[in-house]
Amino acid sequence: MELRHLRYFVAVAELGSFSRAAEKLFVAQPPLSTQVRQLEEEIGAPLFVRHARGVRLTAAGTAFLEEAKQVLAGVERAKRIAVSGQHGGWIRIAFVPSAAHTLLPRLLPRLRAARPQAEVDVVEMITSDQVEALRTGRIDAGLARAIPGASVPLRRFELADPFCLAVPRGHPLFGTTPIDLAAAAEATFVGFTRYLGPAFFDQVISLCTDAGFSPRIRYEASTVFGVLSLVGAGLGVAIVPASSVLLLPPGIGLRLIKRATRPGGIAFIAGKGEANALVETFTALARETFAEVRAELRRRIPGLR
C-alpha cells in the first residue's frame, strides 16, 4: 500500500465518482480504477459499491476513509514540520473564547517578537477538545478553562480567574465591591450559549444552584464581548470571569462573588511528552503573561487576592 493508493481512494470517496476524481487528480480513469482495486485486494474487502451514477462507500470503506484521511494529514503535517524547522519552528495553539480577548492579544505578539520566523497556528477550541487534541498531537499547547483533572498527563499552570457578577449601571445590584450571589436570585440573567462552552455554562448554573436559586436566563450570547454588551444595554446581569474587567465597557460594574463554590481560572496546558523549543518559548511567555494579568486583576477588582 502506497500513499497514492490512499490519495486516490479519498478523492473517489469524497467526490463519489471515479471520473470526477480522475479529473481532480489529473490522471486517466482506467489507471485510477486499477489502483483502487489493488487497494481493495490488499485490504481484502470492497471499499465501494459501484453503480451507474458513481460509487458509494461500503461499511468497510466508511471506516477506512477516516483512517486514510488521518494518515494523509499526518504526512502533510510531517512535511510542514520539516520545512518549518528551517524557519524557526511551528506551533499549534488552541484557546477558549474567554482567552481570545484577554490573553492572546498579549501572548501572540510576544511570541512573534521572540521567534519572528516561527509558523504559528491558532484555533478556538473548548477545554475538553483541547485535552483530546493534545493527546492525539493535533495541538502543542492550549489556553483552557481550569480543569480539576484530565485523562492525559499535562504540563499545566493556572491563572486564577474567579467568577464575578456583571451589573449594569442603574440596576439595584450595581457596584464594584464583592457580593453574595444569593442577592441576584430575582434578577434577569444574560448567559453564555451552552453548546459553545458547556463546562463554563454548567459551572455558572451550579454557582447559582449552590446559592439557592436557579437563574432566570432571558438572553444569551456566544462571547464575553456579546454578554457584556447585553449587560451594558441594561438587559440583565451576568456571571463572567474576572478577566472580563480587561474588556469592560463603560456603565458596567464588576462584583467579585463572595465565597464562590466553583473556582474559576484559565489554564495553560501542554503535553508532558517531548516538546519542541518553540513550545518551551511559548510556555515561558505564558508564565510571564499570566503573572502580569494576575497583578492587573488584583489592582482592578476589589477583594480579589
Can you offer a commentary on this structure?
The protein is an alpha/beta fold and 305 residues long. It has three domains: 3-83, Winged helix-like DNA-binding domain superfamily/Winged helix DNA-binding domain (Arc Repressor Mutant, subunit A, Orthogonal Bundle), CATH 1.10.10.10; 89-160 and 265-300, Periplasmic binding protein-like II (D-Maltodextrin-Binding Protein, domain 2, 3-Layer(aba) Sandwich); 163-256, D-Maltodextrin-Binding Protein, domain 2, CATH 3.40.190.10. The chain contains ten helices and twelve strands. The chain has helices at 3-15, 18-25, 29-43, 59-84, 97-100, 104-114, 127-136, 198-210, 224-232, 277-300, and strands at 48-51, 54-57, 90-95, 119-124, 141-145, 154-160, 163-168, 188-192, 216-221, 238-241, 252-256, 265-271. Strands 4-3-5-12-6 form a five-stranded mixed sheet, with helices on both faces. The protein has a three-stranded antiparallel sheet with strand order 10-7-11, covered by helices on one side. The model has no long low-confidence stretch (mean pLDDT 88).
Task: Chart the SSEs and their pairings.
Blueprint: H1 3-15, H2 18-25, H3 29-43, E1 48-51, E2 54-57, H4 59-84, E3 90-95, H5 97-100, H6 104-114, E4 119-124, H7 127-136, E5 141-145, E6 154-160, E7 163-168, E8 188-192, H8 198-210, E9 216-221, H9 224-232, E10 238-241, E11 252-256, E12 265-271, H10 277-300
Parallel strand pairs: 3-4, 3-5, 8-9
Antiparallel strand pairs: 1-2, 5-12, 6-12, 7-10, 7-11
Helix pairs in contact: 1-2, 1-3, 1-4, 6-10
